[in-house]
Design brief:
single chain, 454 residues, mainly alpha, 18 helices, 2 strands, 76% helix, binds phenylalanine
Length: 454
Amino acid sequence: MQSSKQSTNSFSSSLGAIMAAVGSAVGLGNIWRFPYICGKYGGGAFLLVYLCFVFGIGMVLMMSEFVIGRRSGHTPMKAFASLSPKRKGWRYIGLLGIITCFFILSQYLVISGWTLSYFFDAIIGRLATMGQDSVAISDYFNIFSTSTVRPVLFLGIFALLTAVVILCGVQKGIEAVSKVLMPVLVVLLVLLCVRSLTLPGASKGLEYLFSPDFSKLTAEGVLAAMGQAMFSLSVGMGVMIVYGSYIPVSDNLFRTSMWITASDTFIAILAGVAIFPAVFSCGMEPTGGPGLSFCVLPSVFNSMGGVMGTIFASMFFLLLGIAALTSAISLLEALSAWLVETLRGRRWTATLLIVLAEFVLASVVSLSNGVWSHFHITGITFFDFVDKLNSIYLPPLCAFGTVIFEAWVMPSADVRDELSNHGTLRAAYYPAFRFIIRWLAPLALLVVFVSSFF
Ligand code: PHE
């Protein structure tokens, strides 16, 4: 069942594979979610638990997806089917991954559209005109995000941008763009860190982020750490199966996964250092999510005054846009590669079909904040419903199916063969890896999934 493809449908090098996967992993989750939950659940104490989860389980899940992708050379559905020819039902785990990608991308597009719109607002100085009037800034965001035309327009532009990259191909599109944008993202982040750390009273922000407070590390915090580790590494939705199928056969999957996990974590921590010292220095309350990026931070940037505020606000929204773009690329690639394989169609047609469908779904998600906010599913708006699906229900389920498949259905010799590049690498870690995918990871995922109902 050896993968035969090593053509243009693969990354050209190990570095290219790492950059593309880091691009997928580094997203909104790193920038507005990680720093906030880290501070909320006990700073250094949370960080410790997070590091255990992200390296002990998240990275192992990533390796598992890479193994399935590279060994089969297929996208999720066909990958599962081809690795267990007698039990084709497993392909529905792949389908679940594809459905998850579909929902996540719709929500990602909405938020990316907001980011793009705010980037323009920052550049032309419109954000600066609101000064530090936090009521005016919040009102502006509420009116904008609940309006009908502008958010849909910007999400459409963002979707087109993502599609163009996908249409340029795996090497000339995804890999090339990631190799340029990832370093740009790090430079922007470092510049923001320097600014933030040199503001008066910055140390309070660092304290919030890092000083360990075990009394704040509740059971909820531990579950949040696990959920964040998975979401941040983009595992549990088949994206890494697709990227795995593009990884060169000579690549050491353990080393690649280690680099991706370390870079993702490092960038999440840097984001905290770029954001919270500045927030505290302004005497504002720490928060996460849209409230942080679109309400608190604009006020923080405006407090820097005039041109400086405009420059740093533009840099921040550019950074957020880059993080969102490279993640959206990986989601769209997973979806269109799946459609190409399923319909045996052309990349062009498949990508356009998916983008069109995503545009429709994302528009509904966007409108559910405004004109359609009275339309509820299970008592919540469609936006919140999709958010719940994406953050707590679908990924753990899909990741659970994936590890169970790899640990109990695929022959162990095949898994080891793939991880050791057909015996050319030692893969001394294999017994530990196997123990984790057989017992630890399924148990952790089950706990996360079941507890999400309470
Ligand atoms: N890892 C991304 C983040 O941290 C989210 C994501 C999940 C992106 C799945 C692509 C696929 O925001």
